[in-house]
Amino acid sequence: MRKTLITTVPAALIALGLATAAQAVIKIGASVSATGPAAFLGDPEAKTLQMMVDDLNAKGGIKGEKVDLVLYDDGGDANKARTFATRLIEDDGVQAIVGGTTTGTTMAILSAAEDAKVPFVSLAGAIDIVQPVKPYTFKTPHTDRMACQKIFADMQKRGFTKVGLISGTDGFGASMQAQCKDVAGDYGIGIVADETYDPKDADMTAQLTKIKNTAGVQAVLNPGFGQGPAIVTRNYHQLGIELPLYQSHGVASDGFIKLAGAEAAEGVRLPGTALLVADQLPEGDAQKPVVTAYKSAYEAKYNQPVSTFGGYAHDGFALIVDAISRAGSSKPAAIRDALEQTKGFVGTTGIYTMSPEDHLGLDLSAFRMLEVKGGGWTIVN
Predict the structure, then answer these.
(1) Residue 71 and residue 111 in one domain
(2) Which residues make Cβ contacts (< 8 Å) with residue 267, sequence separation at least 6?
(3) Do 172 and 273 fall into the same domain?
(4) Quick one: angle between helices 39-58 and 288-302, nearest 10?
(5) Structurally, how many domains does the chain consist of?
(6) What is the pLDDT of residue 17?
(7) Deepest in the core among 117, 231, 265, 380, taking most CB within 10 A?
(8) Distance, CA of 26 to CA of 323 (rounded, Å)
C-alpha cells in the first residue's frame, strides 16, 4: 500500500499552470509496518511522520522548500520493504529514507539504500544495523546490546548474579539474546536458564515452568518485541513466579501494559526513553521541552497515548530535516555527510552526537530504567 501523505503543489495550481520552479520539493521516503504483527510499532510511526510533515510544511518547509513524504506500509514483510525501498529510490526519487519498523524490514531497506547511496535512518533496535558502520545507514533507537547493558547494570545493583532468559526467535529477539549473553559476564551475571519461543506462539507456560524450576534463578529477562513479551508477562503472573521480570526496550509503551494486563505487568522493569515519563522529568532536563511538545501535539491530534516507537520516527525525521538545513542541500550525499556530523541534537530518545565511527550517537545515559507501578511507567531511581 502506498500513501503520499503530503502533496507539495495543490492540484488546482497545477491545473491553472501556476506551479513554478520556485516551489521546490524535497522528497523523503518511508516504509513502516503500519499494519500486520508490528502495527503497534509502525502505526504511531506513520502517524508521527504525517503529523511532522504537515506541521513542517505549514511553517514553510525547509528553508522555503516544501517536503513531499512518500509513505509505504510494508506490513512487517521484509520482501515488501525491499520492494518499497527500491520503488522509493528508483521511481519516487527520494533524497532520504526513514523507516524500517523491525530489524527484518530494516535490513531489507538497508541493502537497497546502501547500493543506491541514499541516506537511511532506521527505527529498529538491532546492533547489526549500525555495527559495523555502513556509510549511508543511521538509526534512532538504542541498540539491543545497550539495552542488555542497562538491564544488567540494574540487576547488578540489586545483587542478582544468576539470570534466566526467555527470548523471541524473531530478528530482534535473537539478536538481543546473543548480545545479552555476550555482555552478561561484564556485570558478574551468569545465564543459568535459556529458553526461546516463536513470535506466533500463544502460550509460553512450558518454557517459563522450566525457568521457574531451575535452581538459583534470581531474575528473568525477556528479549523480544511484539505480542510475545505480553504473553510471557501474563503467563509469568499465572504461574505465580515472584522473581523480578525484565523486558526489552522493544516493548516500551503503554500498549504493552494494556496487552499484558496491568496486574500482570506490575513490577516489570525495562530500559525506556524520556518520552514515556515526560511528566516526571525534572525542570532543566534537556529533553523535557522536546518530549512534552511532541507528546502534546501527538495526543491532541490523534487522541491516543504517545508511543516510544512514534518517538523513534520523530527523531529520525527531525534528524534528516536538521541535516538538510545544515547542509544547505537536499542531495543524498550532502544529507549523509551532515547526518554523520550531527552534534548535540536533542530528540525524544536522547541527545544524538554522531561521527564516522558512530551512526547512532546515543549512550546509556539516554536510557531511563522504568518500572510498571499502578498501571503506568515510573522512573527507577
Answers:
(1) yes
(2) 244, 245, 371, 372, 373
(3) yes
(4) 100
(5) 2
(6) 33
(7) 265
(8) 13
In a domain, 285, yes or no: no
Annotate 144-211 with three-state secondary structure: HHHHHHHHHHHHHHCCCCEEEEEEECCHHHHHHHHHHHHHHHHHCCEEEEEEEECCCCCCCHHHHHHH
Question: What is the CA angle 99-94-144, rounded to 5?
Answer: 20
Residues 226, 375, single domain; the answer is: yes
Give the DSSP H or E segment for 258: helix 254-260
Cα 327 versus chain centre, distance: 25
**Could you say which residues of the chain have pLDDT below 50?**
1-23
**What burial class does residue 14 get, using C-beta atoms within 10 Å of its C-beta: 0-12 exposed, 13-18 middle, 19+ buried?**
exposed
Run of H or E residues at 302: helix 288-302
Order across the sheet with 66-73: list the strands.
Answer: 2-4, 66-73, 25-32, 96-99, 120-122, 137-139
Q: Is residue 283 part of a domain?
A: no
Phi then psi dihedrals of residue 203, to 5 deg: -155, 130
Statement to judge: residues 353 and 372 lie in one domain? no
pLDDT at 312: 97
Does 10 share its domain with 134? yes
Q: Is the peptide bond before 229 cis (omega within 30 degrees of 0)?
A: no
**Same domain flag for 374 and 342:** no
What integer pLDDT is reported at residue 4 of this predicted model? Answer: 40
Cα 288 to Cα 295: distance, rounded to the nearest angstrom:
10
pLDDT for position 381: 80
CATH number at residue 39: 3.40.50.2300
Task: Report DSSP state, residue 65.
Answer: B
**Do 61 and 10 share a structural domain?**
yes
- Distances, alpha carbon 362 to alpha carbons 253, 261, 273, 306, in Å: 20, 31, 12, 21
Q: What is the pTM of this model?
A: 0.88
CA quadruple 116, 118, 123, 129: dihedral positive or negative?
Answer: positive
Helix (H, G, I), strand (E, B) or coil at 110: helix
Domain of 215 in residue numbering reads as 144-278+367-379
